[in-house]
Specification:
This protein is of the alpha/beta class. It folds into two domains: 273 residues, 3-Layer(aba) Sandwich (UDP-N-acetylmuramoyl-L-alanine:D-glutamate ligase), CATH 3.40.1190; 130 residues, Mur ligase, C-terminal domain (Protein-Tyrosine Phosphatase, Chain A). The strands form three sheets. Strands 4-3-2-5-1-6-7-8 form an eight-stranded mixed sheet, with helices on both faces. It has a six-stranded mixed sheet with strand order 12-13-17-14-15-16, with helices on both faces. Strands 9-10-11 form a three-stranded antiparallel sheet, covered by helices on one side. The protein is globular, with a radius of gyration of 21 Å. The protein starts with 5 loop residues before the first helix and ends with a helix.
Length: 416
């Protein structure tokens, strides 16, 4: 079988394993050992948590690049194209690089069934090994303990936040979820925790491994106003830091990591400031201004919806707030809607084209359960929902597109 295009390879790697998700490290580690990709010659930062992982990866990548370090970043899911998931020195991997890396992984697996995510993780490590990189920045896909990214030993582990998500895989309490995410910790290696009220399971795991534990709100802090912010810990204070579209608490996590790695990867204050200004992460409260403002956000669970709702409250809007919305059926749709319903005047709701998509009937039931029965238009197609919202909007209104990476990515594909 000849696989000549990236599309061919993505179809193929999606068919190798009978399941989309199968947690566990035995299979993927065995292939990684064959590939000899388990011992990078540079620091590894593993980023886990419920919300804020992508922002944290982007922040670390931007600051280290501003300091002239060569970075490898692995993140998921993508918005438009798979290439977004693997970046080398800030540039997306090319189709040719990805096809070659997939071929190397496929040859090395010797019949071992890998999920698409495991294939992608190994392809990233193959490409990173081929480069002369100064730091790997690896985003956990699901959980941590049994996620493919955890085949690497982290020099620093970041836990951005702990919320209720992926309950069928990780458990239905913050304690259970925290224990799974703490699986990326390593003995004696620092942990940066962006959750200012972390589950006891997180703290316990770090203590058991004698891993130095740095908690936001206790060991490092941020102060924010409308134009700038301040980072501080017991050793350093940085003032007049530039704001960007990303959550300041995630950027505080980033700076704590930067300072913990200063002895290996020194970064000047000027590079921090420049990096914070350079960050570009689509789909995170991304605002497209105009007579009708459009806001794109990948919020897809209650905690993210709560953050988005709070942000909307701070943003002036003369007219109505119109939602273009869809979610996946394995998410907490009801809890998510409840967190943001007070900020939405009109909803345009439609299913996604995805095997995990919530159907129109499931979405209708969720809205009724959330106590919303008026001001909602249900449509058969997400892009039709977006066009209908555009037709209904008037000058001074704003349209917010949210609920999933897929929701944002599908609508963005029309406009970017």
């Amino acid at each position: 079988m000849k696989l000549s295009t990236l599309s061919d390879w993505l179809s193929y790697i999606g068919s190798v394993h009978s399941r989309q998700i199968e947690l566990g490290l035995t299979r993927v580690r065995k292939v990684a050992e064959t590939l000899d990709v388990l011992t990078p010659g540079c620091p590894v930062i593993t980023v886990g948590g419920t919300n804020g992982k992508g922002s944290t990866v982007a922040g670390l990548e931007a600051i280290y690049r501003a300091a002239n370090y060569r970075t490898g970043a692995f993140t998921s899911p993508y918005l438009w194209q798979f290439n977004e998931e693997i970046r080398i020195d800030g540039q997306m991997a090319t189709d040719e690089q990805l096809c070659a890396a997939f071929a190397i992984v496929d040859a090395a697996r010797q019949g071992i069934a890998l999920t698409a995510f495991e294939f992608a993780t190994l392809a990233a490590l193959v490409l990173f090994k081929q480069q002369s990189l100064d730091v790997y920045i690896m985003e956990v896909g699901l959980g941590g303990r049994l996620d493919a990214v955890n085949i690497l030993d982290a020099d620093i582990a970041v836990i951005t936040s702990i919320g209720i998500d992926h309950v069928e895989w990780l458990g239905d309490t913050r304690e259970k979820i925290g224990a799974e995410k703490a699986g990326v910790f390593r003995s004696g290696k620092p942990v940066v925790c962006g959750d200012d009220i972390p589950p006891a399971s997180i703290v316990f795991a770090a203590d058991q491994l004698s891993a130095p534990f740095y908690q936001r709100g206790k060991d490092f802090f941020h102060e924010e106003n409308s134009h700038e912010w301040v980072f501080s810990n017991s050793h350093i204070r940085l003032e007049h830091l530039p704001c960007n579209a990303l959550a300041v608490q995630n950027m505080a996590n980033v700076l704590q990591v930067i300072f913990l790695l200063q002895s290996r990867l020194p970064v000047a204050a000027s590079a921090i400031s420049q990096g914070l200004q350079n960050i570009n992460l689509p789909g995170r409260i991304q605002i497209i201004s105009g007579d009708i403002t459009e806001i794109y956000d990948v919020a897809h669970n209650p905690a993210a919806m709560e953050f988005l709702s709070a942000k909307l409250l701070t943003m002036n809007c003369e007219g109505k707030t119109i939602a273009v919305f869809s979610m996946l059926k394995d998410k907490d749709i009801i809890g998510s809607i409840k967190k943001i319903r007070d900020q939405i005047d009109v909803w345009y709701v439609a299913p996604l084209v995805n095997e995990r998509a919530a159907s129109v009937e499931q979405l209708q039931a969720a809205f009724l359960e959330a106590g919303i029965s008026t001001g909602i238009f249900y449509l058969s197609d997400l892009l039709l929902a977006y066009h209908e919202a555009k037709k209904a909007a008037r000058t001074g209104d704003r349209i917010i597109i949210f609920g999933s990476f897929y929701t944002v990515g599908n609508v963005m594909s029309l406009n970017f």
